[in-house]
Batch of 2 targets.
Target 1
Amino acid sequence: MREFVVCVCNHLDHLVVLNVNEDKTNTDITIEVHLSPLPLYKRLINAVKYVFGIRSRYGDYEEVVIDKEKAIQLKNFFENALAKENFF
């Protein structure tokens, strides 16, 4: 089961992908957050900052804004996933 949630701005760089992974022993959920692509020089600057431990005090975040319709979609997704009998 897979669900795609796009930001209310409808920009595909603001995308969250939710997956329910099932096998014989258990079921788990993975959440993939797709961040905006950066130009090469900004990625290099971020890499150097990371190596030297320089971090933003706010963290490295992008955002996905959801409306009520998408919140209900997420609620239904998680309810269905939790209803699986081998969800741990």
Note: DSSP finds two helices and three strands in the chain.
Target 2
Amino acid sequence: MQSLFGTGAREFERTRFEVGALMEAGNQVTAVIQIEATIRSIGKRLRDLQLHLWSFDARGQVAKFRHVVDTHQHWRVSRARCFSAVSAT
């Protein structure tokens, strides 16, 4: 997990991280999150509505975590990064 969050911290300059709603059902909690960030390596802005789905075991410990994002938007941003790297060579 540290490497995942470490990469995100280096690459994304977050300007907004706002939890809009929390929903609970059984052993799961879902957080609806609005984010805005700038991708440092290419200077491109990203705005996204994300879902964080947490599942807990019988002891109340986190058993699973899912991070749901707009994959098309993230693909477009990563594609722009690939094209900028190709055009620089």
Note: The CA atoms of residues 81 and 87 lie 10 Å apart.
